[in-house]
From TrEMBL:
InterPro entries per the UniProt record, alphabetical: AGP_Transferase, Aminoglycoside_PTrfase, Kinase-like_dom_sf
Keyword match Kinase: yes
Keywords, alphabetical: Kinase, Transferase
GO function terms (MF aspect): kinase activity
Residues in Aminoglycoside phosphotransferase domain copies: 136-210
The protein, known as: Homoserine kinase type II (Protein kinase fold)
UniProt feature coiled coil, ranges: none
Keyword Ribosomal protein: no
Pfam name, any one: APH
Protein species of origin: Sanguibacter keddieii (strain ATCC 51767 / DSM 10542 / NCFB 3025 / ST-74)
Length: 261
């Protein structure tokens, strides 16, 4: 969807929702187009993608807070759609500037507990199973992008919403845990934070609460492959060497495959 399509779609949806398009501000995020004003958020996307997100969010909403869906606008030509969501209170979990290590750890624990709760949610019927899960693998709801920017916390460090369900799929709960562990420790954007006391406290809280340091090696190997595929077009080969090394370590520990460099 190009920028002109997005602008046209947002204007039409804003009119349908009774929202002033001139006051909308873009929010950050790598997937989808997200805009907000006052206490509402407009999420722009293709109808099928938004359908998928809404099904995943509804399933997760039985155990964790998710943004309430207020309305939806579908382009008459079928070129796109916009979902109107209630804007969740709070800031993203990674907004740690000025915080003490103790508070950062509390925020990490809150994120880890939410992830454990999500690991108990069965995947909705018809959800695609992640690759390499195996025919007998459990089918739990996987977020697959559960990082600090997609969890919102209030001033008391309580989770107010889990957002961005674009990548949701079905598979073993350990795969989702391993995916998060790989993001927090291997993503090139976050690696420079390792060793900083506040970030380490946040990471330690999440790791302890969710058991990110006790994952089966096959889950870790799967998450490393997922990251290599996801980031392969954004970083030079040398920039992902540490991810390939982590994959080799996981394979050596028991994934049952020949190490790949």
């Amino acid at each position: 969807m190009d920028e002109q399509q997005v602008v046209r779609l947002v204007r039409a949806a804003a009119a349908a929702f009774g929202v002033d398009p001139a006051r909308l501000e873009r929010l950050g995020g790598a997937t989808g187009q997200v805009l907000a004003v006052d206490d509402v958020v407009l999420r722009v996307g293709y109808p099928g993608v938004l359908d998928h997100e809404q099904v995943a969010s509804k399933a997760a909403g039985h155990v964790v807070p998710v943004p309430a869906t207020l309305d939806r606008y579908d382009d008459p030509a079928g070129d796109g759609a916009v979902v109107l969501l209630r804007r969740a209170a709070g800031t993203d979990a990674g907004a740690l500037e000025g915080m003490s290590p103790e508070r950062a750890r509390r925020r990490g624990v809150a994120c880890g507990r939410v992830q454990v709760a999500l690991g108990q949610v069965p995947a909705p019927a018809g959800f695609p199973t992640v690759r390499d899960a195996g025919p007998a693998a459990e089918r739990m709801l996987l977020h697959l992008d559960l990082h600090p920017l997609n969890i919102l916390l209030d001033d008391d460090d309580q989770v107010t919403a889990v957002v961005d369900w674009t990548n949701a799929a079905a598979g073993p709960a350990t795969f989702d845990l391993a995916r998060t562990a790989s993001v927090l420790t291997l993503d090139p954007h976050l690696v420079p934070l390792l060793g900083h006391p506040v970030w380490d406290a946040f990471l330690g809280g999440w790791t302890e609460a969710a058991g990110l340091d006790a994952l089966p090696p096959e889950a870790t190997a799967w998450a490393c492959r997922y990251m290599l595929e996801d980031l392969g077009g954004r970083y030079p080969e040398a920039g992902l060497a540490h991810v390939r090394a982590a994959l080799d370590d996981a394979v050596t520990q028991g994934a049952g495959e020949t190490p790949v460099r």
